[in-house]
């Protein structure tokens, strides 16, 4: 009887410990992993000697699973076997109930991590924590994601293909007025319905244009991280604006961001209510550029001679340490055994910044395997077959329904993702996922590929596949690896079972399969949601970052980037080009400068007093005033200083007016503009240091009265056309709040001349309303000036402030190619430094301009010389490098148009033209 009671007591203790054992996190039983090898006598001693609930933790670890139940039956005396058998049956039933409790879920996303950038794929990478979880869990060998960040994250959380959300074309950028569709229910919202506490740490990148787009409005109880796509790892800035928040509150952790994320994860886990399941979404910033890492991690890779690869590898190890800290926190808090850990990259490695996908083809921003096949694994609670490699297909859209299923939720209808949890948990590939869409883009000039589909073993790419179409080995020394870039056909068909690295295009041999897959793509096309992104520059111009200043040119509808011949045409750069945080001049296109253009020193304090004093001298009525500012125009870039420049209208005004030979301005844009309009030195306005960046919470002091405000007091109609660049952090900083009756132009320091984007967010307004003129911006400014002048009440004096965008970079205008192949430097065409060479503009071959100058008494018509604009057609296939373009000339043409309109409308009587060369 005593033995029977003892047996029942032991079983009850085991039962209780299985349910409540998680409360004691200090007890560790690593030796139990070898339990099947223990001798029977030793097991019997364990059973008899550990009589407290905490001592029986050993049996809890066994859970009657590591040791076959029959072994225990053999250990006990015969008369107890039936009793223990009956209770054991009850215990196993209860055990099933305990295991079915909703697991904690940690969903880790590594940013821009290449296939070859983890230890379980490449032993040269030090990632012991990632490797342990992968090898002791289940490696997902065919896990697919989108080619770039935002689309993947949207797919993870919504279960929808990005092309059904308008996210197929690119990523959401800092100033983009868009976000993932608000009518879609996100994964954390579903998990909250199941009783989960939901937390997010890291990179959001799904929009921030209004609060409803941000994490705490999309299902997360807490958020700690940044909204945009990239930022500095130390000062948390993007476009010189700080981007780091604790929930909605801006903060600055003052440490390497990877450390900050691990620290916050530890805090959340420690403070978590253990009776409630937890979902932790942990999308790391690592290893997205900028390539920044503490020296201790870089020093771990002294054998890697290539600087970029050395730093990048260190970033992987730093992230691995952070993941190790998270798992240790789970163990310390008794949650590890009940946690399902999911790890995936969001896209392939970015080879420009030392990511590596070898032997897979391509990389980030391509629909090749190197851009879409992710390093991924699952570990922990619910896996029936750990220590395995799972070859079944899984796509980013599947994670939402799969995680919900693992959490005990039901099926989600109407989404693209399928529930693969039964398949993954049992380690058996599922027939539910036999095809998926890599990407489907309706853009004429796509960023990350026109279309690609997987059906069974076959993959079809239709159209543009992405900018990086070669195979990129890990560089062995300071020289970056050679790039093999094959000729690409419009249709690319690969059998990935036989050719996983996409070498053999079968589109001709397998015509029937090609036809079948094209038809399937056409079916999906019915559901394309128009891209929320503007038509951006090519991936070369928008993604590749260089040191400081780089020119881009438009030619025959393409955007070409001037880079070194060893930069992207045949090889990557010899050594890492230092990458710095984005600033006002560094949107998605970061520029390097071949030579420092001379800038004039200045003192612009005289402009406002000079203009105001002129009003007092007017006898009859106040003159109309046109104040023209040319952007980044050099001393030698006008005809009256340099005969090689064709600027007849500016030259006429200068030579028939008064040339200001000692007129000074500030070294950069915002300070000059502030001085023009306020009459204060920039150092008295806090603008002495730099320019106002797009995301910067700054503008000239609101207590300063600007020139147009003074002019309005004198009865002037005040209009502004062009570049503001004096702040936009709140409406009070913008032109129509600072004295201008109307505004037509852009708020920031630069933008694309054709699509009006900066940081790929649109920036063009008619007063306060965002618009898109759909023409070269210089044309748009002249057209609006025409409208304003034509509609001007002639009885009222007019002030027109016309700060042209020209000739600020990006260098965009109808262009030409230099006859010399592969020039190594970007230089002006000889013999004319600003030679106006056009491609495809025959209507400008012969041009005559007439300036009509009307005085009070007479009308003088001056015929300006007819000049010929040479047209040189020279685009030498892939090695074409463009020279300086004719943007200045276009600017000059429109100056004369404005003059002509003024005079014809009898508005030029007494007019004063002031050309400020900045």
From TrEMBL:
Molecular function GO labels: metal ion binding; sulfuric ester hydrolase activity
Signal peptide limits: 1-21
Domain Sulfatase N-terminal stretches: 103-408, 623-814
Cofactor dependency: Ca(2+)
Lineage top rank: taxon: Eukaryota
InterPro entries xrefs: Alkaline_phosphatase_core_sf (IPR017850), ARSB (IPR047115), Sulfatase_CS (IPR024607), Sulfatase_N (IPR000917)
Keyword Transit peptide set for record: no
Segments traversing the membrane: 56-76
Pfam families: Sulfatase
Keyword S-adenosyl-L-methionine among record annotations: no
Keywords: Calcium, Glycoprotein, Hydrolase, Membrane, Metal-binding, Signal, Transmembrane, Transmembrane helix
PANTHER family: ARYLSULFATASE, RE14504P
Similarity-based family: Belongs to the sulfatase family.
Protein name: Sulfatase N-terminal domain-containing protein
Organism encoding this protein: Mytilus galloprovincialis
């Amino acid at each position: 009887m005593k033995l029977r009671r003892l047996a029942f007591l032991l079983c009850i203790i085991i039962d209780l410990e299985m349910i409540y054992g998680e409360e004691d996190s200090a007890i560790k039983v690593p030796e139990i992993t070898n339990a099947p090898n223990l001798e029977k006598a030793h097991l019997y001693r364990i059973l008899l000697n550990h009589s407290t609930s905490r001592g029986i933790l050993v049996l809890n670890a066994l859970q009657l699973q590591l040791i076959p139940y029959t072994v225990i039956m053999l250990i006990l005396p015969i008369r107890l076997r039936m009793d223990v058998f009956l209770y054991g049956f009850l215990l196993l039933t209860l055990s099933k109930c305990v295991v079915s409790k909703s697991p904690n879920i940690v969903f880790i996303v590594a940013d821009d991590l290449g296939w070859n950038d983890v230890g379980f794929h490449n032993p040269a990478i030090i990632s012991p924590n990632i490797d342990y979880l992968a090898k002791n869990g289940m490696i997902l060998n065919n896990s697919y994601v989108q080619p770039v960040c935002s689309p993947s994250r949207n797919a993870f959380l919504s279960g929808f293909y990005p092309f059904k959300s308008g996210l197929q074309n690119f990523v959401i950028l800092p100033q983009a007025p868009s976000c993932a569709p608000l009518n879609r229910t996100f994964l954390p919202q579903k998990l909250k319905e199941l009783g989960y506490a939901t937390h997010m740490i890291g990179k959001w990148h799904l929009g921030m244009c209004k609060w409803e787009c941000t994490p705490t409005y999309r299902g997360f109880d807490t958020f700690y991280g940044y909204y945009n796509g990239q930022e500095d790892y130390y000062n948390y800035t993007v476009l010189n604006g700080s981007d780091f928040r604790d929930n909605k509150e801006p903060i600055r952790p003052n440490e390497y961001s990877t450390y900050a994320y691990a620290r916050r994860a530890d805090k959340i886990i420690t403070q978590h209510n253990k009776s409630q399941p937890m979902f932790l979404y942990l999308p790391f910033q690592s290893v997205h550029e900028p390539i920044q890492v503490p020296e201790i991690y870089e020093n771990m890779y002294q054998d890697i001679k290539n600087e970029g690869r050395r730093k990048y590898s260190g970033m992987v190890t730093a992230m691995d340490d952070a993941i190790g800290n998270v798992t240790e926190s789970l163990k310390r808090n008794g949650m590890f055994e009940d946690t399902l850990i999911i790890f995936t990259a969001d896209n392939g490695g970015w080879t420009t910044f030392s990511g590596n996908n070898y032997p897979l083809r391509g990389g980030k921003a391509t629909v090749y395997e190197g851009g879409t096949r992710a390093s991924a694994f699952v570990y922990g609670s619910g896996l029936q077959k750990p220590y395995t490699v799972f070859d079944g297909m899984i796509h980013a859209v599947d994670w939402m329904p799969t995680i919900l299923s693992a959490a005990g939720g039901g099926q989600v209808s109407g989404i693209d993702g399928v529930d693969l949890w039964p398949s993954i948990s049992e380690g058996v590939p599922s027939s539910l996922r036999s095809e998926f869409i890599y990407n489907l883009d309706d853009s004429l000039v796509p960023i990350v590929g026109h279309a690609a589909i997987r059906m069974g073993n076959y993959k079809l790419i239709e159209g543009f596949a992405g900018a990086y179409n070669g195979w990129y080995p890990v560089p062995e020394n300071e020289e970056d690896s050679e790039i093999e870039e094959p000729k690409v056909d419009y249709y690319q068909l690969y059998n990935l079972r036989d050719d996983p690295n996409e070498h053999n295009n079968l589109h001709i041999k397998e015509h029937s399969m090609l036809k079948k897959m094209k038809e399937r793509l056409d079916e999906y096309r019915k559901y394309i949601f128009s891209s929320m992104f503007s038509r951006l520059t090519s991936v070369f111009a928008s993604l590749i970052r260089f040191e400081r200043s780089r020119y881009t040119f438009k030619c025959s509808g393409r955007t070409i980037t001037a880079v070194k011949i060893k930069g992207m045409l045949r090889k990557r750069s010899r050594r890492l080009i230092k990458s710095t945080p984005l600033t006002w001049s560094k949107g998605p296109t970061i520029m390097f400068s071949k030579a420092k253009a001379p800038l004039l020193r200045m003192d612009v304090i005289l402009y406002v007093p000079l203009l105001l004093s002129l009003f007092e001298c007017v006898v009859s009525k106040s003159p109309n005033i046109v104040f023209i500012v040319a952007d980044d125009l050099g001393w030698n870039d006008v005809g009256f200083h340099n005969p090689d420049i064709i600027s007849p209208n500016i030259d006429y005004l200068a030579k028939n007016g008064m040339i200001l030979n000692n007129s000074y301005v500030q070294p950069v844009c915002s300070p000059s503009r502030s001085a023009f309009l306020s009459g204060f030195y920039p150092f008295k306005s806090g603008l002495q240091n730099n320019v106002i960046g797009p995301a910067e919470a700054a503008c000239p002091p609101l207590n300063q009265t600007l020139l147009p405000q003074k002019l309005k007091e004198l009865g002037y109609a005040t209009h502004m056309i062009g570049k503001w660049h004096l702040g936009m952090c709140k409406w009070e900083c913008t032109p129509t709040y600072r004295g201008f009756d109307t505004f037509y132009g852009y708020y920031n320091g630069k933008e694309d001349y054709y699509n009006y984007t900066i940081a790929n967010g649109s920036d063009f307004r008619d007063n306060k309303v965002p618009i898109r003129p759909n023409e070269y911006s210089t044309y748009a400014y002249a057209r609006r000036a025409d409208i304003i002048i034509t509609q001007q009440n002639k009885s009222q004096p007019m002030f027109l402030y016309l700060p042209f965008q020209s000739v600020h970079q990006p260098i965009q205008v109808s262009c030409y190619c230099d006859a010399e192949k592969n020039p190594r430097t970007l230089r002006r065409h000889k013999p004319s430094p600003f030679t106006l060479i056009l491609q495809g503009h025959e209507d400008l071959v012969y041009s005559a301009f007439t300036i009509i100058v009307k005085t009070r008494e007479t009308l003088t018509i001056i015929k300006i010389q007819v000049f010929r604009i040479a047209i040189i057609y020279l685009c030498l296939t892939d090695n074409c490098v463009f020279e300086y373009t004719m943007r200045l000339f276009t600017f000059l043409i429109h100056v004369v148009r404005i003059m002509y309109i003024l005079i014809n409308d009898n508005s030029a009587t007494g007019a004063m033209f002031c050309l400020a060369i900045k």
